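@channel anyone free to eyeball this complex?
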Amino acid sequence: MNKYLGNKAALALFLLPALILYSVILIYPVLQGVFRSFYEWDGLSTATFIGLDNYKELFGDPLLLTSLKNGALFALVLVVFQIGLGTVLALVCANPRTRGRRLLKTAYFIPVVLSVTVVCQLWIAIYDPTNGLINRLFEMLGLSYRQNWLSSPTESIIAIAFVNAWQFMGYQFALLYAGVKAVPEDYFEAATIDGCGKWRAHWHVTLPLMRETYKFCFTIAITSGIGAFVQMLIMTNGGPGTTNYTMTFMIYRYAFMESNYGYACAVSVLLVLISLAATMIINRVFDREQTA
Amino acid sequence: MKLFNNRLGAVVIALSTALLVSACGSQAANDTTQAAAEGGKVQIKVYAQHFDEDTKGPFDYAVEELKKEMPDVEIVLDSAVQDGYQKLKTYAATGNMPDIYFTDWTTLQTFAKSKNVELLDDYSATTDYKNNLNTGVESRLIAPDGHVYAFPDTGIEFQLLYYNKTIFDEVGIDTPIKTYDELIAASTKLKEAGYLPLSIFAKEKWITNAFYNGLVTREDSQGLGALDEPGVTALPEAFVTAAEQMKNLQTAGLFDANATNTNYDQASSLFYQGKAAMFVNGQWEIYSSTEKLGDQVDWMYWPAKDEATFEQAKSSINGAGAPGGYAVSPGSKNKETAVEVAAFIAKKSAEYRYTKLGSPIVTPKVDKEIAGDVPAMMQRVADELLPNATQYAKALSSTEIQNAMNDNTQNMLVDGFTQEDFIGNLNRTLEKQNQ
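replying in thread with the prediction:
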C-alpha cells in the first residue's frame, strides 16, 4: 500500500480527472457566481459593475425573509420526521426479535425510488380540500376539522415539507440503520447485563456511537431544507403568491423569470454561505459532544 | 512499478487518441450537416413552436407555401420547447442563434439589449407587413419603443367569461350579467344550487391576473399597461376599485377554495362536466368548450360596477397586444432572406389560422374566405366583438410589476389576504420600479 501511495505521479494522475471535474462543475460556477453577484447582468448583455448594490437590495427584499423562514421550517420538519422517526425505525429494524424486518426495510425505502413528480401528484390528491383523503378521513370520523392544506399561507409550507420528509425518510433510515448495525453488539449487551433497559441502552450506548452518522444525516436534512425547491414548484408553484418561496425559488424567479442574473447570483452566494454555516455549526456541535 | 507506469502511459495515450478521433468525427459530422443543403439551396434554421395541432398545422402549412414561393429556401425546423424561452436564451448566450426564432415581448426586450435580434424597421418586408395589418393590432408589430422586432401571426388575444346556459337557466340567472353586483348574486344562487360558480386554473398565476385585468379594463381601458408609466408609484383608482371587487367576489364564494392549486385540466373538466357554471380563459377556449358543451356554452362581457359603465366599457377588450412572433438573428449568414422568410411564415401561419381554423384573431389581413365551420361563439366574436372594439388594453412591459401582479392577484383568491395587502404590496413594487 505504501509503495503505491509513495508514487506521487500516479496519485496525481488518478486524482486529476476527478479534481478537474469537481473544479469545472462546482468550484468554477461558485466563483463565477460570486463574481457575477457584483454586477447588474441579464445573462446576455454586457454586465455593469454595481459593487454591493445587489446585496443591499437583497437584505431589504421581503422575499428573503419569507424564504429564510420557509427554509428553516422545511429543515425542521425534515429533521424531526426523517431523523427522529428514521432513528426509531432503524432501531426497531435492527432488533433481531422484530418480525418481518426485511419487508419493513424495503417498504420504508420504496418512496425514495419513486419519481418526485409522482409523489407530489399523489400528495396533491391527498391534500385536496374537497375530495382529498385527509379531509375525507376527518369527515368519516365525524370531525368538522377541515384544512385547505396547500392554499393556507401559513401552513402549506409544512404540508409540502412533510411530502419531502415522507419520501426521503427511507434514505435517512438506510443511513441510520447502517449506523446502528456498525455499533458492536458487545457494547449493547454489556449495558443490558449491567441492568440497562433496551431503550435506555440505545440512548446511552448506540446513539452516542452513531455520532458521525448523525452528523451526516443532519447536514443532509438541514441543507436540503434550506435549498428546497422541487416540491414547491410542482405542488403550489411557490404560491399562493410567494408564500411558499425558498431561496432556491428566489434564484429561479430572478434568473429565469426576470432575467436578473446578477441579483440571482447574490441570492445564490447567500444560499451557499448559509448552507456552509449550517454545516460548520453541525460539525462544531457534534465535535464538541465528542470532546465532552 | 516500471510495468505499471508503462501501462498507465498506454492508457493515457489510448484515451487521448480516442478523444482526438471523436473530435474529428464530430467535425466531420458538422461538415456533413452543412453540406446537407441540396442543389445550392439556402438553409434557414427556424426555432418555432411545433408540438401540437395548433402549432404544427400553421407552421407546416407556411413551410409548404414557402416551397412554392421560394423554392431555393430550405427550412430546417428546430422545435421550440415550452420552457419560457430558456433554450433560446442559451442559444443566444452561446452564440448559436437560429436564423429565425419565435418568441415573446419579454425575451425580445432582453435580446434587443444584447443585440440578439435584428431591427426590422427598414426592410421592405416590414413595410409590406405594416400596410396589411388588421385594425387595432399595431401593438403586435410595433414595439413601445417604436421599433419592429418580429412578425406576429396571431392577433391580440383576450380573455372572456364563459358560462353554461343550461345551468344558468336551471338556477334562474338572467343573462347577460352586466354588473359586478349581479355576478355576486349569481354566485350566491349557484352555490346554493350546488354548483361551483366559476372555475379558474389559478395555479397558473397569469389567469388570476387576467381576471383582475378584466375588472380593471371596465374602469380604465388601458388595463395593466397603465402601470408602466414612470411616476405611477401607487395604484390608480381603477385598480383599487378592481381589487375591492375581486376580493368581494372571492368572499362571496365565486372561486373554488382550492382554486390556487387547480390546473387547467382540472378547472376545465369541472366546466365541461357541468359542475362549474362559469369558466375564465382566453378566446382560444372557444374551440374546446364548443367541442365539449356544444351550444350549451356562450361567452359574456366583463361585468362593471354599474350598467352605464358596462355599456360604456363593453367594447374595451381584456387583452393586450405585445410585440412577438418570428424574429431574425442579426448573426444570420442569410439575413436578408431570413427576414423575407420570417414575414412569409408569419403571414401564411395567420392565413392557416383564418382559413382552416376559423380564427379571426390574426395580425395580417387575409384576403381569403374564413373557414366555413366556425363555432358560434367565435362567429359572435367576429361579428360583434371585434368590429365594435374601441380599445385593446395596453401591454405591461415591466417584468417586475407583472410578476408582482401575478403573485398578488393569485393571493386575492385566498382567505386572509385582504385588498389592503394587495394594494400595499403593489404600491411598494410600483414605487421601486417607477420612481
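from a first look: The longest strand of chain B covers residues 42-49.
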